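Q: Make up one entry.
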Amino acid sequence: MDIATLLGIFIGIGLILVSILQNSGLDLFVSAPSVMIVLGGTFAATLVAYPVNELFRMLGHFIRVFITRKSDLYELMDTMVSICSIARKGGVLAIESKLNMIENDFLKKGLRLTVDGKDEHTVVTLMKREIKQIQQSHKDGWEILNDMGKFAPAFGMVGTLIGLIQMLASLEDVSTVGPRMAVALITTFYGALLANLVFLPMAVKLKRRSAAETLEMNLVLEGITYIRKGVNPRFMKETLENYIDNAAGKKIKKEVEEEARKGTPKKAGAARGPARPPGQAPGATPRPAK
C-alpha cells in the first residue's frame, strides 16, 4: 500500500473541509446536480475519447496508484551477480534449480529463455518487446488520467454556465440570486478539486512509476546479457552499479534541463538559420571565398 498517495488525498480533503467549516456549513458545498455534471461529464468525455478496452486496462493502473511493489535495484543487481557466478562455475543449466527462488518475474522469464537454449538475439528481442508493451500500457494509463484532469474543470464550467442561465432566467426574484449563484459556482469547485487533487497527481505518479519500472527492466536485460556471456561477476557488479548511478544522474539532469528550458525565453531569430552574406539571394549556394 502506498501511504503517500492516501495521505496526500486525506490531507488535501481534510484541509479543505477545515477551511469550509470555519466559515460555513458543509451543506452549502453539497450539490447532487453538480456532482452529476462534473463526474458524469468527465467519464462521458473519456468514453468518447478512448476505447472501452483501454479504459478497463486503466482501472488496473488506477489500482497501482495505491498499491505498489517495493523494488531495490541494488538488491536485484546482487541477485543477478550471484546467478552469474553460478552460471560461470556450472554452466547456464546450473541456474535452472534457482529459478523458483527468484521473485522478479521479468528476470525469471529471461533466465528461463536462456536455460531453454534460446539464442541471444531471440531473448533480447522478446524482452525488449515486452518492455515496449509495458511502457505503452503505462503511457495509456497516465494519458487517460491526464485528460480526465482536463475534462473535469471544463465540465465544472459547464455546470456553472447552466446555473448562471437558470439564475438569469429568474432575476425578478432577487432573493434567489445569491443561492443560485452559489450553486452555479459549486460545479467549478468540484471540477478544480477533482483535477488537481485526484486525476493530475495520479497521472504524475503513474508516469514516475513507469520510468522506475522501465529502469528496472532494462537493468534486468543488461544482467541477462552478462550472464549469457559468462563475464566476471565482479566486473558485472561494477558495470551494473555504474548503470544504476548513471540512470539516476541522467534523470536528475533531464529534470534540471526541462526546468531551465521552461524558465528561459526563446531568443528572437534563433530558428532562422545562419545569416547570408550581403547580396546573396535566399536559398542560393554561398560563393567560395577568393
In short: The chain has eight helices and no strands.
